[in-house]
Design goal:
With 212 residues, the chain is an alpha/beta fold. The chain has helices at 4-12, 25-30, 50-56, 68-77, 129-142, 169-176, 193-197, and strands at residues 39-42, 60-65, 82-87, 90-95, 100-104, 115-120, 143-156, 180-187, 203-210. It folds into two domains: 1-13 and 35-112, Vaccinia Virus protein VP39 (Rossmann fold), CATH 3.40.50.150; 120-212, Vaccinia Virus protein VP39 (Rossmann fold), CATH 3.40.50. The chain is built from seven helices and nine strands, in the order H-H-E-H-E-H-E-E-E-E-H-E-H-E-H-E. Strands 3-4-5-2-1-6-7-9-8 form a nine-stranded mixed beta sheet, sandwiched between helices.
């Protein structure tokens, strides 16, 4: 079973193959144009530099991350100055000079609402089948009715007992609702050698958008 301790251990032992250096090209290509100061939620954000890119576009960015190590590495790697305060079980790290906050703690204990957009690159696919619906429900509850969502999902022929989990297209639509639209799809086996080396014939990455 995938627990919080599983993820904390992955960070402690450096087994973070899901981390991506630089900014995801699909974020840059497919992110919708939103008004400046729109509030953007990034669940299970890790130490993703995608958050820096979003903040530099003028959005108010909130990342939520369980691992204290991931948070410290993100802030340190980007040489960010920040203030920290405790809010119940959560730690709020507010970056100086950028419209960016990192919420350290369990995402399911994060209850702020009214976000204008959500960016999910590796959060849904980190959720086992038994928790995926709860994750999507919790995320949608954080968003305003008019919110945009940019989601990246995976569908692959590998072991589905450990993340990143394979999620079928029908499941994505069932979870997020009929307003979701697939924007692009790519079999990474054909473009990134390591997937073929691991024995995959299919490792499909798809980009989805929910429009209000």
């Amino acid at each position: 079973m995938i627990t919080n301790d599983f993820w904390l251990d992955r960070w402690q032992t450096g087994r973070i193959g899901f981390h991506q250096e630089g900014v995801d090209p699909k974020l840059v290509e497919f992110w919708p144009t939103l008004p400046k100061d729109s509030r953007v939620l990034v669940p299970l954000c890790g130490k993703s530099n995608d958050m820096i890119w979003l903040a530099e576009q003028g959005y108010q960015v909130t990342g939520v991350e369980l691992s204290p190590l991931a948070v410290i590495q993100f802030l340190g790697d980007n040489d960010l100055t920040y203030d920290t305060h405790q809010d119940g079980e959560l730690k709020i790290h507010t970056v100086q000079g950028l419209p960016l906050r990192i919420i350290e703690g369990d995402y399911f204990q994060f209850t702020e609402t009214g976000f204008d957009a959500c960016y999910d690159r590796a959060a849904m696919v980190a959720m086992s089948d038994s928790k995926r619906a709860d994750y999507v429900t919790h995320t949608l509850e954080r968003l305003a009715a008019s919110a945009n969502v940019l989601l990246i999902s995976l569908y692959h022929d590998g072991d589905n007992q450990t993340p990143p989990f394979s999620v079928e297209e029908a499941s994505v639509i069932s979870l997020w609702g009929e307003n979701i639209q697939k924007l692009a799809s790519e079999n990474l086996v054909q473009t990134i050698p390591r997937y073929k080396e691991r024995g995959h014939a299919l490792f499909e990455e798809s980009v989805w958008r929910i429009k209000p």
